[in-house]
Structure formats: C-alpha cells, structure tokens
C-alpha cells in the first residue's frame, strides 16, 4: 500500500514523582495521538471519512429514541451494507489507479487531467499504491470486531479508517502467501520508538514483539529496523535491542542465514549493521560475541547517494545548526535545552536543570508549539538553501525533539531492498514498513517510507504485535 497510515495527549504532567518509564510512555502517547487527532492529517483517510459520513448522518438520528431491537438491527445492517459498498468502490478506484499508473512513461506529466487516474483527481495528494487492497473484506472484519456500523452517536473515525487500511494490507499479503505465483512478502521493516517499544525505550527480553520478529525470520522474511537513531557504532544499538539479541542467540529454530537476515539501518539511511554471532560487541558468559557488525558504505550505499558532495552535506548541517541556534534565541528556549551535532544529523533535544527545591535534576522540555515552529521553519529554510537541494534530507518532530538527518527512510528501505539481494532486488510490492510517524512531510520521518513500499500506520507497540500476529497466522 502507498502508505496511508499515521500517528499522536497532552503531557502536561510535570510531577517529579513520575518514573522515567511513565514519562516515556506519556511522551509516546502524546506523539501518536497528537497527529491522529489534531495535526494535519492524511487527506486520503479524511476523504474516506467524508464518504462514510453520509450513511452515518442519514441513519444516526433515526434510531436515537427507538427501543425496538428489530428496528435497530435493520438499521445496523443497512448502514453496514452502505459502508461496505463505499469501501468496495474505493477498492475499485485503487485498482484503477494502479492500472493507470502502470501505463504512464517515466517522467510523464501526472499533474494534468489526462495524466491522472480518477483517484488522483478526487484526492490530489494521493501517492503510489504498490498493491491492490481488499477494503470491503477488511471493513467487514473490523466491523465484526468493533461494531462500527452499530454506532449511532460516533461516526467512523480517523482511527477506524486507519485500521481498516492496515487490515486490508495484511489481507493482501496473506492472500499472496497462499497463491502459488503470488508476490509474497520478502521484507518487513520497522521504525523503533512507538513502533517496537515506547518512546525512548528498548527491546527487553519480555517484549512481545520479539517472538513475532523471530517468526518472520523463520519464514525467510528479511527484517530491517529503519530508525532515526543515528549511531555510527554497534554498541548503542545493541544496548537498545538487547532482548532481541538474546532471543536470537538462544533460538534453535533459526538457521545462521536466517539470523543474519536481521539488519539495522540507523540515522534514516546513514549506517547499516547486520546481526552476527561472531563479530558483535555483546560479550556473553560463554565467550561468544553476538550482536551487530557494521557494513561498509561502499557495499550498500545507493549510487546516487554516493554522488552527494561531502561539502553539500556539511553545509546543509551547518545551515541547519545555525537555524536551530537562531530559533533557540527567538523562541526563548532555555539554555539547558541542547543542540546536538552528529556526523550526519543535527537536532535539538530536551535538557535537564537542577531544581533547588527538590535537590535533583528535572527535565526541561520543549513545548508542542515550539516543536512545530522549529521543524516547519527548519524544513522551509533548508528547502530554499542551494546545497541542501542537491542532496536529500529529512526534518522531523520526534514528539520531544526535532532533528535534521541526511537522507531519508525511503532511501534506507530502498537500500535494504537491494542489499539483501543485489541480483533480484526486493520490490516495493514485496516490502512492508511499519511505523507511527506518517504525518505530512516536514513533521514525521516515516512519511517518505511510502515511496519505497507498502506501509502500516500504527499508534502503539501493542498495535504492532497485534498486526504481526495476524500477518504470521493468516
């Protein structure tokens, strides 16, 4: 699927008695629900919501004062049928768009009416769909679980549509798995924070997503963690993914090659590491060293990425750093909030200050409005800066910080598609990226993943686990 799916409550709790775990959890919920409820939303999802509003409005009031169970059931069935018909029509529109797009030549004008599918004209911002989506079937499945059509006071929501799109994408891959010549799923990639674990968290031994990842590997599916966390050494990733490493070590069901099908793409598309039982830095009691080993850039970096000028990269980061410093002064951000410069990224992150009354360090956080102002200004300024236009960069709001990275998640995923099998690269229709940040470009970094493969927009690590169970067991 093109990637129709995004993520973000207000975390005004400043109690110093909150644990770090609670803080991280609240930050995660803020980030997810903010985007789902009050930020700029996905135009395609909002368009579907608008279509579903008509049958809801027509039948909502008619049953409010009724106590007749038979009448209520009849209305529910009528609404359910109308919702299903709408999703069936959208299903046809997506299939038509896929067929229409396949006839266009590379570089052909897609902005004129003659170069657009019906869906492009209805939803101008729509992207590329890599697979057809059984939306009617997905709606009926979700409705059976959540009784969407039985609601009279609450219309189908953004989350309802998001989940239906997710389910449709899962159903597609389940169908392909059962077809002799189907385009089966060959690679699944994940964001880190809020997708595999809570914001700022780690993968511990008890994390329920770990058995799911092992099952994907056992199915000979390549697994990549494509994260904004940008470390140029393996130890930092190994600390955050310790539970997964332990599970791989202990696994007797996975072959060596299957274990090596796990990779980490850090800093969006800047650092590649592969799981190894020989070269990692994770020392065990038995003397083995399992973990992640770095892969040289010459081996995996895409040709056009190699052509980027080092000067353009440094000038882009310099300009982004100057912009952040200027914004820090203009927005009166406390001195304790640091700006951090890395080799391939620069960002502004929460700080800490000593509280005399409590006699301890307390967090110094950026306000939601400050985060928005920073990321949008940074994006806008860089788009007009000549060196940054000659490369690719990503500006995103992580929920508590703002970063500018060189590259993007689309490049990270495209890199893995080719790296795993240079002779027969994995296709976008054989790729699935799971993430929580699918807000509009300039505010979330999973957005660009839509350019490289099918996507699932989740809102919590538990959603990731639930979806993977359906994918694996289907």
TrEMBL record:
Pfam families: ISN1
GO molecular function: 5'-nucleotidase activity; ATP binding; magnesium ion binding
Keyword Glycoprotein appears in the UniProt entry: no
GO biological process: one example: nicotinic acid riboside biosynthetic process
Keyword match RNA-binding: no
Catalytic activity from the UniProt record: IMP + H2O = inosine + phosphate
InterPro entries linked: HAD-like_sf, ISN1
Keywords: ATP-binding, Hydrolase, Magnesium, Metal-binding, Nucleotide metabolism, Nucleotide-binding
Known EC number: 3.1.3.-
Cofactor: Mg(2+)
Superkingdom of this protein's organism: Eukaryota
Role according to the record: IMP-specific 5'-nucleotidase involved in IMP (inositol monophosphate) degradation.
PANTHER family associated with the record: IMP-SPECIFIC 5'-NUCLEOTIDASE 1
Subunit structure and binding partners: Homotetramer.
Family of this protein: Belongs to the ISN1 family.
Name of the protein in question: IMP-specific 5'-nucleotidase 1
Protein source organism: Naumovozyma castellii (Yeast)
Lineage, opening ranks: Eukaryota, Fungi, Dikarya, Ascomycota, Saccharomycotina
